[in-house]
Design a protein that fits this description.
heterodimer, A: mainly beta, 7-stranded mixed beta sheet, 4-stranded antiparallel beta sheet, 11 strands, B: mainly beta, 54% strand, globular
Chain lengths: 116, 114
């Protein structure tokens, strides 16, 4: 059971370059999320999706775009990389908690991005 | 919007002692409070969560308490072991379609020394 898989693990970009961070999950979860984690800070929500074809902005969406064409995949696109986007990016998936059971948000192991 | 504050930022404990991490939240509409453990180089992993209709929840050496009136919740780890060393995050959200839109605290680095 692979869970949430993120690629690449590490990437260095030059200012103004573009890239796509890949995220795929094999748990048939409807809900998927992108968070970023800056040093010494908690995670902040960039974008999320409640199902295929549906995406919405989180707390810090500027400079990013997402798409959700399938249940499994939720790529994050950086169009014009800036030094402020240097961070560790985490993708997560889950299902709505019901009564009486835990429904954890499953995180991938992250993509460490440096923009110079 | 919701704001979650977490204290302390670092916590050193002797193996076998207890560790307590405290969080406060600002939005009284929040009703879902998970705790995540993050080991070096890995993504956060849920260790326990609590909902606002419950005041306390335990799972082996881990317990979480919630005070809705004061808007604070705490993580208690008893009989700490070296493998408990990690960064711990508290978070808050609502058990609706917004459940996964977690507002995280800044994290607590826990170091358990043998």
């Amino acid at each position: 059971n692979a869970g949430v898989t993120q690629t690449p693990k590490f990437r260095i970009l030059k200012i103004g370059q573009s890239m796509t961070l890949q995220c795929t999950q094999d748990m048939n979860h409807n809900y998927m999320y992108w968070y970023r984690q800056d040093p010494g800070m908690g995670l902040k929500l960039i974008y999320y999706s409640v199902g295929a074809g549906i995406t919405d902005k989180g707390e810090v969406p500027n400079g990013y775009n997402v798409s959700r064409s399938t249940t499994e995949d939720f790529p994050l696109r950086l169009e014009l990389a800036a030094p402020s986007q240097t961070s560790v990016y985490f993708c997560a998936s889950g299902k709505l908690p019901g009564q009486g059971y835990n429904s954890p948000l499953h995180f991938g192991n992250g993509t460490r991005l440096t923009v110079t | 919007g919701e704001n979650v504050e977490q204290h302390p930022s670092t916590l050193s404990v002797q193996e076998g002692d207890s560790a307590v991490i405290k969080c406060t939240y600002s939005d009284s509409a929040s009703n879902y409070f998970p705790w995540y453990k993050q080991e070096l180089g890995k993504g956060p992993q849920l260790i326990i969560d609590i909902r606002s209709n419950v005041g306390e929840k335990k799972d082996q050496r881990i317990a979480v308490t919630l005070n809705k009136t004061a808007k604070h919740f705490s993580l208690h780890i008893t009989e700490t072991q070296p493998e408990d060393s990690a960064v711990y995050f508290c978070a808050a959200s609502m058990t609706t379609d917004s459940w996964g839109k977690l507002q995280f605290g800044a994290g607590t680095q826990v170091v358990v020394t043998p």
